[in-house]
Amino acid sequence: MLARVQECQRTLNNGASLPELHRKVDATYTLGQLEQQWCMAHIASNVHALGGIAQKQQLVARGARDIDLTRAVRNGDVIRARQGWYTTLPADSLTVRAVRVGGRLTGISAIQAAGGWVLGETSLHVSVPVNSARLRQQYNRFARHDTLNTKGVTIHWDSEVVGERGTVASVGILDALHRVIRDEPLERAVAALDWALHSNAIDEFDLQLLRLSLPQTLRGVTAWSDAQCESLPESLVRTRLRLAGHHVVSQIPLQTGEAIDLVVDGCLAVEVDGDEFHRDRFERDRSKDLECTIAGFHTLRPSARAVFGQWDRVMHAIDRALSGRGVVLGNARPAGTPVRFENSGVVTPP
User: Fold this and answer.
1) DSSP string, 145-190
2) Under a CB-based contact definition with an 8 Å cutoff, are residues 198 and 229 in contact?
3) Are residues 51 and 21 in contact, defined by beta-carbon separation less than 8 angstroms?
4) CA angle 233, 235, 241 (to 5 degrees)
5) Does the structural domain 232-347 have CATH classification 3.40.50.2300?
């Protein structure tokens, strides 16, 4: 049946009328049945084209009728996330849950939904207008949101200005990052900034606008970000080592044209591996380790899983490697001190 509906839709898209379509199909399907099936498929494709979630008025503007929407829901082509909202996304997705509550994604939830670097489970952060009413639970659109028992939902009552930015399902990227910096631990906020810069979701000008929008006491958080950072575990290692008092520089070039993920206190190369394993990647990594040693660095290669779940062990290995090079925390190189590398000249860390 689905293949027949898709063929019907292609025929109509090519300019055929419903009577012409009727003549092309078996007599076992009435014109009314074909029209119903086409309308439901058309609604689902429209919702998908609108980002997977849409308000009723958006669909009505594209020709949908109440009866078409009801049939599409009953047939399972779309889900009614909330009264007046329709989606083709999974019912438990962050976006659908935020809309079900009665607002839009914000903060770390908006970053995660956009594909940002987020470690672990977080509360669902939902932005709602200051005059919002009839909020619902994230998994049940018929149950009222209980302000005394939020059940994993954090509500943010945002101004009209915030409401004018972003999409129907999420606040703007700078508003989301602003919320992350205000609400989340430092390493999580820095990872979100690193991802935004790395993915070109924001640029350096945006970063400065974001900095100026923050309270004075939080403006320094933006300086912890690094546009050269390439992954979540790399971001976490860099931030954790800096918090521990070490000097860390990212993406130091080797003679081969490759770059070291992180150089700690001028002598330790830290290469953070991802979870994937490929033989070709294994050989390249071993070759890169040799180049790091030739350049005068001691090399450590912790896995992403170790960074995420065994940080104390990783930190212990880093401390032992540094002490073997005569570096103790009290003697770590101050920020801004020129560092000479045999293969790349003089680098002045930020």
Assistant:
1) P-TT--SSEEEEEE-HHHHTSS-SSB--HHHHHHHHHHHS-HHHHH
2) yes
3) no
4) 100
5) no
**Residue type at 191?**
A
Q: How far apart are the first and last CA of the chain?
A: 62
Buried b (16+ CB within 10 A) or exposed e, 97-132: bbbbbbbbbbbbbbbbbbebbbeeebebbbbbeeeb
- Give the pair of three-digit tokens for residue 25: 């199909």
pLDDT in tens, 82-91: 999 999 999 9
CA 314 to chain centre: 26
Residue 190, Cβ neighbours under 10 Å: how many?
Answer: 28
User: What are the start-end ranges of the E strands in the chain?
Assistant: 53-55, 79-82, 85-87, 104-105, 124-129, 136-137, 140-144, 153-158, 248-253, 259-264, 268-270, 298-300, 339-341, 345-347
> For residue 59, which of 51, 208, 257 has the smallest C-alpha distance?
51
pLDDT digits (tens, 9 = 90+) for 291-320: 777 777 788 889 899 999 999 999 999 999
Supply the Cα-derived Rg of the chain in whole angstroms: 27
Q: Are 167 and 103 in contact (CB under 8 A)?
A: no
- Which two structure tokens, joined as six digits, stand for 154? 């954090």
**CA–CA distance, 68 with 81 (Å, rounded to integer):** 16
Read off the DSSP letter of residue 292.
Answer: H
SS3 state of residue 24: helix
Strand partners, 85: 55, 82
**Contact at 8 Å (CB) between 262 and 250?**
yes
* Burial of 40: CB neighbours in 10 Å, binned 0-12, 13-18, 19+: buried
- Measured in residues, the chain has a length of 350
| Mean pLDDT for back-to-back runs of 10 residues, the chain (350 residues) | 54 55 50 52 86 92 89 91 94 95 97 95 94 89 83 92 94 97 96 97 97 95 94 95 93 84 91 63 70 76 92 93 78 41 34
The pTM is what? 0.79
Look up residue 211 and give its two tokens: 């900095």
Q: Quick count: other Cβ atoms within 10 Å of Cβ 148?
A: 4
User: What would the two tokens of residue 52 be?
Assistant: 């997977």
